[in-house]
Backbone:
């Protein structure tokens, strides 16, 4: 029997290759339409760079698709098209801000980093054939993650930009090692919790309807808490701190299904944040801005004031339900609207309708990731896929919540949209890991030889 | 360019953006409900409930569902291939359970009936309440317990 016969005789999960390619083409077409819209909005003509950017993005994604089809054929069909769309819309917004002659916005730079991101995505898929290899590197990943987190604190190497010491200068580049640390730490959490979850889930006493864990099992939670508070205090980086701690709490909840861990985590974080707010001026300033953005004194404060936040809110307000239209608003009035505040800038031009569509796209990416976690056949993959999807969702929540003044603003990037190489690379790597795991989860079980006798069939 | 044209472009763009989201949900929908590769023509049209030709014989299980234990919620679509369960990394369903053996049990189909077979595990495999000592036919919804994990076959 040939392989084709086998494939036909055995009903399997469909690969959905055609749907994937169609959705990918659709996403690229939307991005090109957005480019055209920007040009028409600004100066009544389709911009000359449209074909270059559009075909560049299209070519990149076709390459990513071919690698995916070759090395992870059973992978989820939606992940790549959805990521393409958000990445492309981000590119368009940066291009639009560059057209408005905003300082620092550079679409060609972002396209270059997107290309590097696709290369990293492909490299991860090609080199990492079985994600369970990561499980053997649990503690290595933990040390690498911690090292990367601490790296910006090393004198001469670390740099402080815009008040946060999260940068490392290498040659002419500045990179944010924290972006990569989060991936390494999620791998570590997954491996660690697979080994330790039974004791975390079962030992303990029951008190007031809540299962309390034993005091000595609190160790890892307290260590992670200390590390996040350390990041908050020493590097003045609220975003990464919140991201890491949230990811750990979510993963421990996925592993143990115990609500008490979530309660303990929230209490610890609120307590830590409250104390930090009392003790450190930069944290206190964030809280002040969050509670009283309309305060005149805060608005006019040159550093750490509410000017940026309010400009973002004004922008989204003037966008309204349907937006001002691409190229017709004034997102260049919002400081840093190409990186931290790209969501507000997009909100001004695409309106609530557009923002909701983008949030839906993010939600779908996360849904595919969680779906992978549900379908995964071994506990490590479950935790890793769950954790990676969660940090993606959590990141979007923290920055969108910050920009819309729901929670105190923290300097996190909007995944795939904000300008910045480190974040783009690490998020493409995250998607590559999810694709790798969804490939393993959706692949039909290995074909055993029917009259096997003593023959064992291995999957490797 | 006139105001009206720009307004139309704006609305059209938002509509297309939402159409993308809806199309993505459509792909997931067929992914969830029409994942049988035996009927690719009907899979494309989710509004037609014409799944009749793709169906195997009535009463035959199509899915293995984990209903208890750490892997709860995992679903494996059944094919003609046997399913191995155990702690070994190459098992179809990999358990991380101190009460399970590396190669704990095996589920296999024979003439349309699924059987469970214990592969010499230390703590045994249980079908309903009774220990499995030889290949035993598994009926729909009957719980199979392996260590802390409970699985069952469903349509």
Residues:
């Amino acid at each position: 029997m040939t392989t084709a016969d086998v494939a036909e005789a055995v009903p399997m999960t469909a690969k959905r290759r055609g749907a994937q390619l169609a959705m990918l083409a659709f996403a690229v077409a939307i991005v090109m339409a957005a480019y055209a819209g920007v040009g028409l909005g600004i100066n009544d003509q389709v911009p000359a760079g449209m074909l270059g950017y559009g075909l560049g993005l299209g070519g990149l994604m076709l390459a990513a698709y071919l690698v995916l089809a070759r090395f992870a054929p059973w992978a989820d069909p939606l992940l790549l098209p959805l990521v393409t769309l958000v990445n492309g819309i981000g590119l368009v917004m940066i291009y639009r801000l560059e057209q408005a002659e905003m300082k620092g916005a550079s679409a060609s730079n972002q396209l270059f980093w997107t290309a590097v991101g696709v290369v990293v995505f492909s490299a991860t898929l090609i080199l990492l054939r079985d994600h369970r290899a990561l499980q053997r590197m649990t503690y290595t990943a933990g040390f690498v993650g911690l090292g990367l987190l601490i790296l910006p604190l090393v004198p001469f190497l670390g740099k402080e930009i815009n008040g946060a010491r999260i940068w490392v200068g290498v040659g002419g580049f500045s990179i944010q090692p924290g972006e990569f640390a989060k991936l390494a730490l999620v791998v570590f959490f997954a491996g660690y919790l697979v080994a330790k979850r039974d004791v975390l889930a079962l030992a303990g006493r029951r008190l007031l309807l809540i299962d309390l864990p034993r005091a000595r099992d609190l160790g890892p939670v307290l260590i992670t808490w200390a590390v996040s508070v350390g990041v908050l205090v020493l590097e003045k980086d609220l975003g990464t701190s919140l991201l890491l701690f949230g990811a750990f709490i979510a993963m421990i909840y996925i592993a143990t299904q115990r609500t008490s861990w979530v309660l303990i985590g929230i209490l610890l974080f609120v307590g830590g944040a409250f104390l930090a707010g009392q003790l450190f001026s930069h944290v206190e300033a964030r809280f002040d801005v969050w509670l009283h953005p309309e305060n005149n004194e805060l608005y006019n404060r040159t550093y750490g004031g509410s000017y940026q936040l309010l400009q973002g809110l004004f922008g989204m307000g003037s966008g309204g339900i349907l937006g001002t239209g691409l190229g017709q608003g004034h997102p260049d009035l919002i400081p840093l609207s190409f990186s931290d505040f790209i969501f507000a800038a997009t909100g001004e031009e695409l309106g609530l309708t557009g923002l909701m569509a983008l949030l839906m796209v993010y939600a779908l990416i996360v849904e595919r990731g969680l779906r992978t976690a549900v379908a995964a056949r071994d506990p490590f993959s479950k935790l890793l896929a769950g954790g990676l999807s969660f940090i993606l969702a959590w990141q979007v929540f923290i920055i969108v919540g910050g920009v819309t003044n729901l929670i105190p603003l923290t300097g996190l990037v909007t995944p795939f949209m904000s300008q910045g190489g480190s974040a783009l690379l690490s998020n493409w790597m995250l998607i590559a890991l999810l694709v790798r795991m969804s490939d393993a989860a959706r692949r039909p079980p290995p074909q055993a030889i029917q009259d096997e006798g003593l023959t064992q069939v291995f999957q490797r | 360019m006139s105001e009206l044209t720009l307004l139309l472009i704006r609305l059209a763009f938002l509509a297309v953006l939402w159409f993308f989201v809806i199309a993505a949900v459509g792909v997931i929908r067929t992914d969830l409900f029409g994942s049988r590769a035996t009927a690719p023509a009907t899979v494309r049209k989710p509004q037609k409930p014409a799944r009749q030709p793709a169906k195997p014989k009535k009463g035959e299980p199509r899915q293995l569902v984990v209903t208890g234990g750490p892997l709860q919620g995992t679903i494996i679509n059944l094919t003609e291939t046997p399913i191995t369960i155990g702690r070994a990394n190459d098992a179809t369903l990999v358990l991380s359970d101190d009460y399970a053996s590396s190669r704990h049990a095996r589920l296999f189909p024979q003439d349309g009936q699924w059987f469970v077979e214990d592969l010499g595990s230390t703590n045994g495999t249980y079908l309903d309440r009774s220990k499995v000592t030889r290949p035993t036919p598994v009926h729909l919804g009957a719980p199979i317990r392996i260590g802390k994990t409970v699985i069952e076959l469903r349509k």
Remarks:
- Chain B touches chain A through 46 residues (CB under 8 Å).
